[in-house]
# Entry
Amino acid sequence: MMNERQKAPVVIIGIGEIGSVMARGFLRTGRTVIPVTRDMNLTEQAEHIAMPEAVVVAVGETALSKVLANMPSAWKDRLILIQNELLPKDWQAFDLNPTVISVWFEKKKGQDVKVVVASPIYGKHAVLLADALAELDIATEVLNSHDRLVFELLRKNYYILTSNIAGLKVAGTVSELWANHQAFAQDVIADIHLIQEHLVAQKLDKEALTKAMLIAFEGDPDHGCMGRSAPARLQRALKIANEAGLEVPTLKSLAASCA
# Structure
């Protein structure tokens, strides 16, 4: 039986660069961190770790659905999600109510953490996670409403999709994209906006989201536009648009030129 003074452990599923940052932060708060790799059976692990304080799902966005579909019942009310391109539909499909962070810090192999802007967190484990990241001097903001969370997740989607997809044509940095190719970037944003409205099933304020995205551009002006996931992001965006019957001429033209 756990001593009252002991802190319940934190499980981290997926120990890549961001998962490792989370682990380091929780360790500094005195928590035991239990790593779970993609090759481990989650149900078997939950039999041995039935009452963790939190379960951080740190797998990539393309692996998220499979992990959530196989999530043990005992862990479902303890989840923290950190993926890019994340929206409420992704967890609501599994009847979950997780804590969610929009990650605005970067960790590359062999490099220390680089903070772009404060990372917003919403959910019952928000303070727990904020305290852990504070140990690493990573700025966060604990949100007080689900609506704010949705806006922040959309802001991150705008940032990632605009910079990555536009970068397939113009390359360079985010500051160069906006300074030298703003008209093209706005065309990309217009298509992305339609897709995001479809995904959240509501009208969105494109101007407000663009302005919020630009604050993040200013937070790391030398950030490269075209990451290695850019082609896959473009194809995913086009798949969503095609299935929804959305007109996204800039994305289609870009895909044709990259073929």
